[in-house]
Amino acid sequence: MTHPVFHAPDHDHQRCTADALAHAEALCAQRSQRLTPIRRQVLEVLLGSHKPLGAYEIMDRAAADGVRPAPITIYRALDFLRDNGLVHRIESRNAFVACVNNHAAGDLVVFLICEHCGAVGEAASAAVADQLKSAARAAGFAPKAPVIEISGVCAHCQQHEHAG
């Protein structure tokens, strides 16, 4: 099943979150790893927003039930989730976003970041990936984290601008 690059403002967010959590549980079970309660909570916080969140924002949202996790606990959970392809780091924002596209670990990831609403879309681009892999190979370069970040305005915000 393909996922939209940007979720519609009225999409079924509960279904979106449930599907991503089910995928995370299955992936961890397949790899004989544990999605511990804190790891799950950090992932749920990120799934609660389709916008990138910093570690301290995650910590604040996780503390909504009264218990504030320590920063190191959040960072360890984020490391686990990143290592397992369940979250991505948005370098330009020094923040994290849940991965809902279930792509392979070495796949090129293109993040489209809306400057108006802050939403992040994760787009696949095999043609761009092939070109970049060829260029890297030709240079004798082995990419570590093939990520591209592009800022702009999402379709929902463009429609809102034109309607107003």
What do you see in this structure?
The chain has 164 residues and is an alpha+beta fold. The protein is 44% helix and 15% strand. It has helices spanning 13-30, 37-47, 55-62, 71-83, 126-138, 155-163; strands at 87-90, 95-98, 109-114, 120-123, 147-152. The strands form two sheets. A three-stranded mixed sheet has the order 4-3-5, with no helix packed on it. The radius of gyration is 17 Å and the shape is globular. The chain starts with 12 loop residues before the first helix and ends with a helix. The mean pLDDT is 86.
- Please identify the structural class as seen in this structure: alpha+beta
Spans of at least 5 consecutive residues whose pLDDT stays below 50 are: none
The number of helical segments is: 6
What integer is the average pLDDT? 86
> Sheet with the most strands?
3 strands, mixed
What is the strand arrangement across the widest sheet? Answer: 4-3-5
The portion of residues forming beta strands comes to 5-15%
Rg from alpha-carbon coordinates: 17 Å
Helix content: 40-55%
Distance between the termini: 34 Å
Write down the secondary-structure element order: HHHHEEEEHEH
Short description:
By secondary structure, the protein is an alpha+beta fold. The chain is 44% helix and 15% strand.
Fold blueprint:
Blueprint: H1 13-30, H2 37-47, H3 55-62, H4 71-83, E1 87-90, E2 95-98, E3 109-114, E4 120-123, H5 126-138, E5 147-152, H6 155-163
Parallel strand pairs: 3-5
Antiparallel strand pairs: 1-2, 3-4
